[in-house]
Amino acid sequence: MKPPSLLTASVLDNLASAVVVFDADLRVSYLNQMAEMLLAVSAKHVMGEPPSAWMDCHGEALLDLVRASTVGSPVTKRGVVLATERSEVTVDCTVTPMIDEDGERFTIAELQQVDRHLRISREERLIAQQTLTRDVVRGLAHEIKNPLGGLRGAAQLLEAELDSDELREYTRIIIQEADRLQGLLNRMLGPNRRPTYAPVNIHHVLERVRTLVVAEAGERIRVLRDYDPSIPELIGDMDQLIQAVLNIVRNAVRALGDEGTITLRTRIQRQLTIGIDRYRLAAQIDIVDDGPGIPPEIADTLFFPMVTAGTGGMGLGLSIAQSLINQHKGLVECHSRKGETVFTILLPLGEDPGSERQGDITHD
Q: What's the structural domain count of the chain?
């Protein structure tokens, strides 16, 4: 089968569906960009190969459908599990046999990710959760700060009237504890300055974080890099992005304890949905550790303030990280099992978070 024309390839690459084309020998002759993203493979690496060569045993399921379609009619199967070394997805698969203008047979497989809507719902819930949490914390902070300021002021006035050093020690304790609570509230609220957006290289952010963590943790923690150099600059606040990533990496360091490995991985994603908005391009930053995993009982509340799986932290870092990434129209997700915890940061590319204009966004 001939390669698709430039016009056809352009149309296929902009579809929301994943499309894989097989030739008469049941080898891959084309993948669109959505298929590359869905299956986490590169078209140039799988071109001319059967599915069994680049998938695990699940590749035979897709190949069986392609074979079944050669009788001359489309075949549809729901809930097909497709897995590669880096991805596992469940799809509804429709396979259609066709003949090109030269009389050569080929087959088109259209893959619809069935867990996509579940993922969208989960992301919407995370975003709504973070918005509600931020509003509640701000309301509580406002209600607490006013009487706390009055309490501190009264203690200072009382201290000025006291002659006894022993009694002044009590007022100093009141003032110190009021300051401690004030500091806690400020940390819960996160950065109080407005972000300053400018072009940012995400790898400069990760290298800054890596340098800080290596200096803090020493040789007990290995920090590996797996970067995609093709990722273009994004529009963001450099300091806030560093803070968000640093909070997540420090959380991983605490989870590892005495030793372990953290991997900083970047990839570019195409036609990616974040919440209900679909972006043409997005950066994916994975922070992977080989620690014990996140306890199931806190998995659903991980980004709430004051939720922590261990000691040494107050449970604010992940909540603040989520808030900072949300300000960049992005999202932080987490998938964890024993021996592997992955925090994934998704950030739109080509978008100005400070602008209301969203030219590359469509709503699902």
A: 3
